[in-house]
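Run: sequence + flavin-adenine dinucleotide -> complex structure.
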Amino acid sequence: MATIYDIIIAGGGIAGLYAARELSKAKLKVLLVDQTSTLGSTAWTPAITLEKFSLPKEGINAPFNEVIFGTLKKEKKWVSNQNIGYVLDYKRMSTLVLEEAKINGCIVLTQSTVNSLIKKNEEIVGINTTKGDFYGKYFIDATGSAGVLVSEIGLRKKVPCHPSVGMEIEIYDPDQHLKKFQNAISVFFDKDLFACGYGWVSTNGNNKYKIGIGESEVSSFKKHPNLELRLEEFIKLLLNDKKIEILEKHGGSIYGGHNFKVNSIRHKNLLGIGDTIGSFNPFLGEGIRHALYSSDMAVESILKNIQKGEDLDSYEKKWKKYTDFHWKLTSFINIALYEKNTQITQNFYNELIKIMDYLDVDDIIQIGQEYKIEVLLKKFPQNMNVIYALLRARFFNFG
Ligand SMILES: Cc1cc2nc3c(=O)[nH]c(=O)nc-3n(C[C@H](O)[C@H](O)[C@H](O)COP(=O)(O)OP(=O)(O)OC[C@H]3O[C@@H](n4cnc5c(N)ncnc54)[C@H](O)[C@@H]3O)c2cc1C
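>> structure
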């Protein structure tokens, strides 16, 4: 007779791995299925992510305690006396969490693609994969943007919205041309170079850095078709044409943000987590922390359902609360800054950097970690121009 798993998890990104580790720690019989065998590159996340989700410190490449915001002409740096966040070696981090899940007894099937759900009398009883059929009691879809199972059941469309796209290089800089970024992550705005998005530079530890561009595809691609050329231009400007060693170049697209519509994040015993349910927030390009939060909420609801018979509805309720007021504020900014920004001028960005002068490092952490955008209103009368430009971009420009 076929094994009946307590939980079957489709997708072994950070959301699926975390759920696998936690659920198998609770002595449940867990199967994790992923189509690849290796995962991830590098990524930043706030310091709280590691503590909250007990992620192994060996997955850190570099801590950072400085944040820089700027245009290509003027920038401002905020320095904290403690670590604000970490740049992770995402591949190493994923491998470490996977090992922890395996130690807890989780069965892992790599290089196996999940095709579809198996139903019996309208109940979900298993999944079909390229390595055969597997049966279980609860199912988690953690297949990221693909959302294979949640889209099959109709919780969202297969391809729900336009993706954001990003391209990044990792460099080795032994001559320390980029020394000012060695403890920092930074975000740059420029009307021409990063239309509908931003550029970034971040430390990657030991004289290594990441330089990238990300933007929302919606209107920018018509005007600025070549992301790669603009990334090269950005690198040239940062390095004053000096040569550096490029270690890696990678890119990707991701679905998320305000136009990612999910009808529900759960159907009966199937729960969607992470990018599957659009947990990526384009505001500062953060997906890892939010994917982990959704995973943690799903784990908690499943455990309470098993142990106390509590309704699985609690999962959806918790996620709605998490993505409430401040999350919605970021959607407002995301639309104005990255999607409908054709009326935003370079002067707007100059003004934005100017008003950020009023902010101290705690304000920056509040905006970055808690999305308390209202902090920008600290000097309300002086900031009227910027607020007016944001409102105009958000509500009056539909180009
Ligand atoms: C270029 C780029 C840079 C980024 N930088 C950052 C950053 O610095 N900080 C940050 O917080 N976030 C960043 N993000 C976002 C972040 O990487 C994601 O939000 C996060 O990884 C989502 O995790 P997840 O587990 O939900 O999904 P994913 O990591 O996408 O995992 C999904 C998993 O499902 C598997 N899968 C898919 N379909 C199937 C199938 N049919 N069968 C079996 N397996 C399947 C995939 O192989 C994958 O392993 C970045 C994203 C991109 C594209």
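>> summary
The first helix runs from residue 14 to 25. Residues 10-16, 33-36, 39, 43-45, 113-114, 142-144, 146, 148, 166, 168, 251-252, 254, 274-275, 280, 285-289, 291 surround flavin-adenine dinucleotide (CB under 6 Å).
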